[in-house]
Amino acid sequence: MTKNDVVDPMALRNALGCFTTGVTVVTTCNDGVDAGVTVNSFNSVSLDPPMVLWSLAKSAGSFNTYHTADHFAVHILAADQEPISQRFATRGIDKFAEVDFHRGVGGVPILDGCSAVFHCKTVYRYEGGDHEIYVGHVEKLEHFDRKALVFHGGKYALAVPKKKPEALVDDVRSRGFSANSLTYLMGLVYFQLMKRASTELKKRGITETEMAVLNILAIEDKRTAAEIDSLVQVSGYRVDDAVLRAMAEKKLLSLTDDDGVLRSTLQDAGRELQLEQLAFIQALEDDALPDEAYAETVLAKDLLKATARKLLQAE
Ligand SMILES: Cc1cc2nc3c(=O)[nH]c(=O)nc-3n(C[C@H](O)[C@H](O)[C@H](O)COP(=O)(O)O)c2cc1C
Predict the structure, then answer these.
(1) Which of 252, 271, 257 is nearest to 224 (CA)?
(2) Which atom of ligand 1 is nearest to the CA of 93?
(3) Is the predicted pLDDT of residue 173 greater than 80, yes or no?
(4) What domain range includes position 146?
(5) Which of 6, 114, 228, 308 could crosslink 75 through cysteines, CB 3.0-4.6 Å?
(6) 284 CB less than 6 Å from ligand 1?
(7) What is the C-alpha separation between 63 and 67, in angstroms, rounded?
């Protein structure tokens, strides 16, 4: 085949990048040698008989291992397995060193935590330019209820199902909220979660402001009331020496006089309370989120972080 002078390889790569794929790791074991590569050239071929394909660069370090292997396994990576994808796309490392796996059909290493695994017998190999194409007969499959990792435009992505708009708004609107306003929606969720969190704080005998102080001191001790105040006021709390003194009485922190300025240091009781409350809030959020909302949660947090950054820059 002649070299193509018309299609620029970079332009080809970029254009192919707009075809969204999942991410897989293909593993094999040949003559006692384990190999694994990150692959997004995977695709289905046939349902009956069950067949799949993928292609491997002839320049891959593990090319000889796959070229003569009888079996391979395709792992569809789950949304939280980006580190696994990066590991198996890195040349020259012991890819299986810190990874949990067991053996599957043909003794092939099978990685834990994926969305699906296809155990295959290699049935065809095709010439494919700078790649070799492998077609496998699926001998066994495993399918788990985990959302898949996505690759688009050269970046990892998350798949979020498009929801019917009416399903999203009806519930919220019926309670008199403007379902299209981020402010109202955030307010509703924040108020409902904080109501529960505050009840827990009251049980523990501290206020929301005191909890905000504990959070700041957990990051760095020896702060003054003014320093803590400037950090917490973005969330609407205000802190002065009286707040710190009340907390010192509860043995949550200790105070030292630094040339007339009070500096606070977290005590064991304060540290313990802060960790317990954080765990409580995490459990509250986990319970409140709809099931299977991993991708949406990551995206919502990213959106709120970017919004917070923009608002704080504008202050
Ligand atoms: C998302 C993603 C998809 C990839 N898809 C393929 C592929 O389909 N075929 C391929 O040969 N390499 C692919 N690679 C690159 C290989 O994973 C990488 O070059 C790997 O280290 C090659 O294996 P080696 O360590 O045996 O050289 C991909 C990398 C990433 C990050």
Answers:
(1) 257
(2) 25
(3) no
(4) 9-158
(5) 114
(6) no
(7) 6
